[in-house]
Amino acid sequence: MRKAAYWLFPIIAIFVAIFIVLFMIQINPTPSTIVEESSSAESTLSDETNESSNGWMNGLHLTKEKEYSYPINEVVIEMDTQSSVLKSHKYHLVVLLKDSYEFFCLKQELKNTNLSYLLNQEGSAMSVEIDSDDYNALANLLLKLKTYQISATLSPVKED
To answer: What ranges do the domains of the chain cover?
Structure first.
């Protein structure tokens, strides 16, 4: 029993190796040409390829243009330069904050109005800048800030 178990592993390994070799030969067949015949065949093939390549190159300029285009993404942008563009007025609100409580009050009011802001802090001085197209929203915010005794300036943005 021990001798059978001792020889079982090498026998299985040999069968697996033979199977792999036969499988590799089957999927990679070798060409069955004789070397002497290939040299004479090469000379005739080279003559035929030269003639066919010359014919191909000569026939290339004789082909007609096809009526198709390659599939590409094409974007066409047309701009009407004669129509007038409506200019929107932009407004700029600057709030100079003295302490963090004023900033807290401003943030609470900005949450209610959904306006975005830019906080500038240089040293101990803080300022908040708010840009918007809606003059009424900025004017209402300015009135609410006055209830908290926060000073702010509202001005239109001058475009160059």
So the answer is: 91-156
26-47 residue pLDDT tens = 887 666 555 444 454 555 555 5
Q: What is the 3-state secondary structure (H, E, C) of the chain?
A: CHHHHHHHHHHHHHHHHHHHHHHHHHHCCCCCCCHHHHHHHHHHHHHHHHHHHHHHHHHHCCCCCCCCCCCCCCCCCCCCCCCCCCCCCCEEEEEEECCHHHHHHHHHHHHHHCCCCEEEEECCEEEEEEEECCHHHHHHHHHHHHHCCCCEEEEECCCC
Q: Is 93 exposed, middle or buried (0-12, 13-18, 19+ CB in 10 A)?
A: buried
> What are the pLDDT digits (tens) for 112-128?
888 888 999 888 888 99
Which CATH number is 91-156's, of 3.40.50.720, 3.40.50.9100, 3.40.50.300, 3.30.70.600? Answer: 3.30.70.600
pTM for the model: 0.45
Q: Which two tokens stand for residue 11?
A: 């026998």
